[in-house]
Amino acid sequence: MQLTNKTDKYVSFKVKTTNPTKYSVRPNSGIVLPGSSCNVTVTMQAQKEAPPEPCRDKFLIQSVIAPDGSTNQDMTPEMFNKEDGRVVKEFKMRVIYIPANPPSPVPEGSEEGTPPRASSQENGNQNFEEVSRSLEDTKEKSSEAWSAISKLTDKKASALQQNQRLRQELEMMRKDISKSRSGGFSLMFAILVGLLGVLIGYLVKRS
């Protein structure tokens, strides 16, 4: 719970309970500054048995105006003594137990005699079939994708081999052309030398 001081004075508070061994209150007392708030946490201790209903436990919150500038160390039990003419305001609260897990609403099918478990089982079977179908579709698409990738890989390897063969044949053709060129040059040179020798011999004989 949250205690809020809506006044312009310092307010001292104290929280009491009819069953202090059953509940833990932190903080159970303190000073709330003007215009500020203080959070108080109430915790029920672990019980060996289920608490009786209705619960008769109660809490009492007392508040009184404190001197300006007061702190928690300045608080004394006498501050909440009504005999000195002090105005002590009190607020009482009764403890009510609320189930931690409220019951779930009854399914509509149960009113007609259809057990809820059957409907949940049917839904589970339907969901399982949908998941199985999606898995099968995924497997088929995956196998098709791997097949296409394998075909593309084979085509790429074949194209690389053909490219390598063409390069080798082109290199061999270049070598043959260069050899034929070099051989033709030597033959022409030999013919020219022979003709030149015949011409020189003819001129020598005439002279």
> Structural class, judged by helices and strands?
alpha+beta
- Could you state the order of secondary-structure elements as H and E? EEEEEEEEHH
Query: Which geometry do the CA atoms define?
Result: rod-shaped
Gyration radius from CA atoms, angstroms = 54 Å
Describe this structure in words.
The chain is α+β, with helices and mostly antiparallel strands and 207 residues long. The protein is built from 2 helices and 8 strands, in the order E-E-E-E-E-E-E-E-H-H. The protein has helices spanning 108-111, 116-206, and strands at 2-4, 10-17, 23-26, 29-32, 37-39, 41-44, 58-66, 89-94. The strands form 3 sheets. Strands 4-2-7-8 form a 4-stranded antiparallel beta sheet, with no helix packed on it. It has a two-stranded antiparallel sheet with strand order 1-5. The chain starts with a strand and ends with a helix.
Throw out a few tags for this protein.
alpha+beta; single chain; 207 residues; 46% helix; 2 helices; two-stranded antiparallel ribbon; rod-shaped
Brief summary:
This protein is α+β, with helices and mostly antiparallel strands and 207 residues long.
Q: Helix and strand layout, with pairings?
A:
Layout: E1 2-4, E2 10-17, E3 23-26, E4 29-32, E5 37-39, E6 41-44, E7 58-66, E8 89-94, H1 108-111, H2 116-206
Antiparallel strand pairs: 1-5, 2-4, 2-7, 3-6, 7-8
